[in-house]
Amino acid sequence: MLETPTIGLAARVLEKLRGRGETLVVAESCTGGLLAGALTSISGSSDVVWGGYVSYANGAKTAMIGVAPSLLAPEGPGAVSEEVARAMAEGALKAARAAEPKVAVAVAITGVAGPTGSEKKPVGLVHFAVATPAGTRHVEKRYGSLDRATIRELSVRQALEMLLEG
Question: Are the CB atoms for 136 and 89 separated by under 8 Å?
Fold first, then answer.
């Protein structure tokens, strides 16, 4: 169950995008659909939320939204990186616009929710990207060694805040 502040942010995002006549697509990894769940928990969200991609596995990132395998390879930046967050958002936007040209914005989340991480990719490291036809912006957060549920909730909130900013 998502906390009330998260649902409140989701409602504000829907209101903002609805007011601009824009439609949204999401691409999620570590949040596993939680962002889409927050947005669609609000009645009437179907006029704003086009759909989403839960691309948890690297192969899904490539097959569903076109993330280049070289980005995900061991010698590449890896799934938890700025490059992959950007590629996820841009790939989701491209895929969605191929089916529905009025999709105007995509948001992507990829990170390490824990409980295990690595020295290079510690628990709590999360990358976000928002893509529009005008460009893509990125944010990196380091939440630290919080529990998995908290990292996922904070990640959903960050994605929603990015959508409100842009």
Answer: yes
For residue 124, which of 141, 143, 148, 138 has the smallest C-alpha distance? 143
Residue 42, exposed/middle/buried by CB under 10 A (0-12, 13-18, 19+)? Answer: middle
Taking the whole predicted model, whether its pTM rises above 0.85 is answered as yes
Query: How far is 44 from 17, CA to CA, in rounded Å?
Result: 13
The answer to whether 3 touches 37, Cβ cutoff 8 Å, is no
Question: HEC string of 54-101?
Answer: ECCCHHHHHHHHCCCHHHHCCCCCCCCCHHHHHHHHHHHHHHHHHHCC
**What are 26's two structure tokens?**
């999401």
> Tell me: the pLDDT tens digits for 138-163?
999 999 999 999 999 999 999 999 99
Q: Dump pLDDT digits (tens) for 61-102.
A: 999 999 999 999 999 999 999 999 999 999 999 999 999 999
